[in-house]
Structures are given as structure tokens and as C-alpha cells.
């Protein structure tokens, strides 16, 4: 017995047509349909979980066509990967799953959709599974070819679908009868509309994104896991940013885009909150959190305490390491996936995220020249006569442990970040551990935080370790204004090196001024500039289309 015959049955001719009441929601059109069968055009969808509810979202037309071409190529779909959504997601055809490329996200189910039914609580259409859609299509083909309608099919979920004619097809939920020994499902209850082909349902399908990318922007979030008053994640908010940017291309740069004079701006999120709170600090906080007003205390622990974490040497190091390493990792991965990319890179931070970026940029070095020529280097070492790790260990009379560090690929920078527990896990005894940790701690405190070389008014180089007259001013009570280092008052951490030079730094709703004031600074020298970033815009008014256009124009200019 064929798959069609196992799912369908011919309704008796005496079976009455649906009553006007049951069909009141359907538009009855002229039933004169051509007997010529035309295959249905499939479209690809993916499933997103929104508020614990499944929502099926169509791929844009270009991505759906790419998926269909890969599906119909005749090759084995297992192991076949198709980039979608501008390269931010990969679809594994064999698994029928969609995976995020640059950030962590639950995988989404993917379907090749041809038949749909209207959902229960909303007007959105839900695609049938691919196997049952094929059964529906075969039944429809026989009905059109033989002009025999009123076909009844039962889905794997015991739901009933009746094909009355090409324009009227309904779906019924199963309603059990009074026989507790197992009654057959009936077509009672409110019927749902069944549609064939994506062109017959109400859904927005976008054309797709321009392939050419002119600029890359990393967006760093502020405190807490939610990034706006709607409690959306950084990924969702950046998606909105990207959508508005694409709309601006259509409304303000349409002709230039059609002539391929410009491409689009790619926005990618950088998440540091999840790695910070996965260190076990939440467990420690829970032990000291009182049980009263539980929701408020939980909200405080998850959001506001991020400010205190950033002022802690231990967790500040975790935060800056996470932000810098994530931007370096995403940048490297982006270049691998977009080898023809020749555009610039900018960074944007919201709230505390802008302060994190400000501190990282302030502590960059430009002594190695053009960083762009060293894109593929994961670590960039300082120049000069700095002793090697082997020389440091020899000085401490611990040369026998150099082979252990060499085996674990631990250099001086990595060793400076190691804790006592890390050294213990490498098999270093207690005495040498204390010597090593004390040596690097003393060395860090004696050297201070590395600062970039600045130019004095006469053009001569100023020392890497600035005096209290370099950057910012404070009144000393005598009427004289002295310039102080921007980083004074900040906790002592080792700032990682970015493997690229940002062109512009955008700060949204930034507390930089407040934090610099708390650190004891009055103002920044008007001539001060970041060592590796030539542009800085502090955007402190609400973002609207006008301000975002201004933001986009600045990216184009730079």
C-alpha cells in the first residue's frame, strides 16, 4: 500500500459538505480549477523559540534558493553546510539544523516547507513536517489529475485534513469520542485553514542582504544579560541595529547600492556577561544573599553587581580578557569566512561596555606599527630587551620548570595570568609556586600599567610611563592644573592587545565621564587620542533613525 493510501480515504458521496458555520472563515472562490497539476514551490523555514512558543520564520528568498539548490543538487546532504543570514548562521542540510557562527545560541530546526496550516492561538501559519507534506502533495496531485476531491487524510498526530477542492482545505484537531477503548478521531471542533505553497500564506519574506561588506562593527553590551527595557539579549538588539542599517541603505543609499558602489555594515555582538557569571561567582553570591525580596536581590546580583565586578582586580581581568579575546576571535573567524573583506573595523559599547572598551583602547600600544599586517597573529609580544621566561626562571633559580611551561605552551603573558591553582595543576611544588607568583606580582606593581608613547608639544617622545602631567587635569589647590594619566584609579590589570586597529569607537549611554571623575580626574587633555583608534563619538541621546543615519554616515566617512 502506498504512503498516500495509508494516510487518506475517500469520503462517501453522501458525506455533507461543511456547513456555512464551519466554513465561515474561508473565502469561497470560483471552483473552476484547471485539471493541469503544477508542482508546489518549496520555501525553507527555521524554528525559533519565542516566549516558550515555537515560531516558524522563513529564510530570505536568496537563502531559501541556495538551500533548495543544495538540496536538489543530487549530492548527499549529510555534511553539506550552507551559510545563511549574511554568513552569521550555517545550515547543516543533513541534520536540518541551523547553527550560529559567531556566538553561542541554541540550534534551530530547519524545514523544507510546502504545506501549512493556521496556528491555534494566532494567525501565523505552521508548516507540516516534510514527510507528511509529501503525502499531502501526492494526494493533491491525484485529486487534481483525476478530479476526485473530498480526500481525508490522517496525520501522524491523529489530526484530520480534508481536501474539499483546490480552494478549500481544512485541518481538524482530534477530538476523542466517548468510547474509552480508543475511538477514531473525528473532524469536530473549529476547522483550521490549510494552504499549499508559501505564496498563499501571509508572511514577510525579505530579499536578502548585500553580499559586499564595507565595514565591521563589534557591539559590546552593558550590565546584565538584558540589553533594553524589553529584556532582550545582545543578539536580538544587534539584530535590530543591523535591520535598521539595511533599511537606511534602501532609503538613503539605494542608487549607490544598486550600482554596487557601496555594500552593507555588519554588526556582530560581543557577550562578556555569560563568561563572567559562569566562573562560579553566582554560587558565592547566592550564599550571602538574603531570602527576602528575592526577585529584587536576584536582579541586583545579575545586573548592578557587574559594576562592582569591574572594579574588582580579579573579575575586571576576566571581563577585559573576555571582551578582547572575543573580539579577536570573531575578527579572525570573520576574515576566514570573508577572505575578500577589505573594509575597516569599528567598535561600539553601551553603558558599562563603553567603559570596558575605553579602558582597553587607552591601554593599547602602537609601537609595532601597522597591526593590520599581523592579523593572523594571536599574540603580539612587546619589543625591547625584556627578559625571556627562561631568563626569568633562571634568575629565580627555577630553570628546571621551564620544560613544563614549554610543554603547556605557557609564555610570560600567560604565566602572569596564572593562579596558584593553575600552577599546582601543572605539577609545580608549593615553594616555586610562591616564588613565581610573587615575582610577577612585584614586577607588575613596579612597572605599573603600560601606556602608549605620546608626543609632547615639541614633538619629542614622552616616556611610556607617563608622569602626572600627561593626559588629564586636576587642580592641586595652588591654581595650577596638572595632567594625570587616564588610567589612574583603575584596578591594576593586564590589558590584552587587539589584533586590529579600530577606526571609530562609539559610546552609547556611556558612564565614562562618571567613572573618570570617581577615579579622581577632572578632564581629559583635548589633544589626547587613543593610541590605535582615530575616532571617538560619545552618543548620549536616544537612538532614532536620524541618529543611526548619522552613525552610519560617520562609518562611511571613515
Automatic annotation (TrEMBL):
Q: Where is the WWE domain?
A: 30-112
* Highest taxon of source: Eukaryota
A GO CC term assigned to this protein in UniProt: COPII-coated ER to Golgi transport vesicle
* DDHD domain ranges (all copies): 498-558
Which Pfam family would be a valid example here?
A: WWE_3
The UniProt transmembrane annotation reads none
Q: Which CDD domains match?
A: SAM_DDHD2 (cd09585)
Which parts of the sequence are annotated with region: Disordered? 1-24
Q: Which stretches are tagged as biased composition: Basic and acidic residues?
A: 1-12
Q: Which SMART domains does the record associate with it? A: SAM
Which Gene Ontology molecular function entries are recorded, alphabetically? metal ion binding; phospholipase activity; triacylglycerol lipase activity
Q: Which residues form a coiled coil?
A: none
Q: Which family does it belong to?
A: Belongs to the PA-PLA1 family.
- What protein name does the entry list? DDHD domain containing 2
What is the species listed in this Swiss-Prot or TrEMBL entry? Rousettus aegyptiacus
Amino acid at each position: 500500500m502506498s504512503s498516500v493510501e495509508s494516510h487518506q480515504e475517500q469520503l462517501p458521496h453522501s458525506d455533507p459538505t461543511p456547513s456555512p458555520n464551519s466554513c465561515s472563515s474561508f473565502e469561497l472562490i470560483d471552483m473552476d480549477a484547471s485539471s493541469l497539476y503544477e508542482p508546489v514551490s518549496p520555501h525553507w523555514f527555521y524554528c525559533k523559540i519565542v516566549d516558550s512558543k515555537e515560531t516558524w520564520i522563513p529564510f530570505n528568498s536568496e537563502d531559501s534558493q541556495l538551500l533548495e539548490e543544495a538540496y536538489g543538487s543530487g549530492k548527499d546532504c549529510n555534511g553539506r553546510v550552507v551559510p545563511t543570514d549574511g554568513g552569521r548562521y550555517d545550515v547543516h542540510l543533513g541534520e536540518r539544523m541551523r547553527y550560529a557562527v559567531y556566538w553561542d545560541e541554541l540550534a534551530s530546526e530547519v524545514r523544507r516547507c510546502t504545506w501549512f496550516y493556521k496556528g491555534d492561538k494566532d494567525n501565523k501559519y505552521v508548516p507540516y513536517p516534510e514527510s507528511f507534506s509529501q503525502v499531502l502533495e501526492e494526494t493533491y496531485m491525484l485529486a487534481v489529475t483525476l478530479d476526485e476531491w473530498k480526500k481525508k487524510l490522517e496525520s501522524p498526530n491523529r489530526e484530520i485534513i480534508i481536501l474539499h477542492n483546490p480552494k478549500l482545505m481544512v485541518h481538524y484537531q482530534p477530538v476523542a469520542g466517548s468510547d474509552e477503548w480508543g475511538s477514531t478521531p473525528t473532524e469536530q471542533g473549529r476547522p483550521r485553514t490549510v494552504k499549499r505553497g508559501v505564496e498563499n500564506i501571509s508572511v514577510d519574506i525579505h530579499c536578502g542582504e548585500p553580499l559586499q561588506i564595507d565595514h565591521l562593527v563589534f557591539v559590546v553590551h552593558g550590565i546584565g544579560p538584558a540589553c533594553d527595557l524589553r529584556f532582550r539579549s545582545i543578539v536580538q538588539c544587534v539584530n535590530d541595529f543591523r535591520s535598521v542599517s539595511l533599511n537606511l541603505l534602501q532609503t538613503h543609499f539605494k542608487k549607490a547600492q544598486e550600482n554596487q558602489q557601496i555594500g552593507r555594515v555588519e554588526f556582530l555582538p560581543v557577550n562578556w556577561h555569560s563568561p563572567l557569571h559562569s566562573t562560579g561567582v553566582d554560587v558565592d553570591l547566592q550564599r550571602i544573599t538574603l531570602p527576602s525580596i528575592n526577585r529584587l536581590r536576584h536582579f541586583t546580583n545579575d545586573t548592578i553587581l557587574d559594576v562592582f565586578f569591574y572594579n574588582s582586580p580579579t573579575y575586571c581581568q576576566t571581563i577585559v580578557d573576555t571582551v578582547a579575546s572575543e573580539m579577536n576571535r570573531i575578527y579572525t573567524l570573520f576574515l576566514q569566512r570573508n577572505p575578500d573583506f577589505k573594509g575597516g573595523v569599528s567598535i561600539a559599547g553601551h553603558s558599562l561596555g563603553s567603559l570596558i572598551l575605553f579602558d582597553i583602547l587607552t591601554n593599547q600600544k602602537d609601537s609595532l606599527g601597522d597591526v593590520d599586517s599581523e592579523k593572523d597573529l594571536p599574540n603580539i609580544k612587546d619589543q625591547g630587551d625584556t627578559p625571556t621566561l627562561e631568563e626569568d626562571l633562571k634568575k629565580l633559580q627555577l630553570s628546571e620548570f621551564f620544560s613544563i611551561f614549554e610543554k603547556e605552551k605557557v609564555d610570560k603573558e600567560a604565566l602572569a595570568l596564572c593562579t596558584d591553582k593553575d600552577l599546582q595543576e601543572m605539577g609545580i611544588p608549593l615553594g616555586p609556586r610562591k616564588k613565581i607568583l610573587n615575582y610577577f606580582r612585584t614586577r607588575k606593581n613596579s612597572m605599573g600599567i603600560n601606556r602608549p608613547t605620546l608626543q609632547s608639544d615639541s614633538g619629542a617622545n614622552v616616556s611610556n610611563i607617563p608622569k602626572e602631567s600627561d593626559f588629564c587635569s586636576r587642580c592641586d589647590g595652588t591654581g595650577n592644573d596638572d595632567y594625570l594619566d587616564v588610567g589612574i584609579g583603575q584596578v591594576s590589570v593586564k590589558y590584552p592587545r587587539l589584533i586590529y586597529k579600530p577606526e571609530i569607537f562609539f559610546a552609547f549611554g556611556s558612564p565614562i565621564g562618571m567613572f573618570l571623575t570617581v577615579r579622581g580626574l577632572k578632564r581629559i587633555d583635548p589633544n589626547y587620542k587613543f593610541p590605535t583608534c582615530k575616532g571617538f563619538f560619545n552618543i548620549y541621546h536616544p537612538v532614532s533613525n536620524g541618529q543611526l543615519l548619522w552613525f552610519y554616515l560617520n562609518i562611511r566617512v571613515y
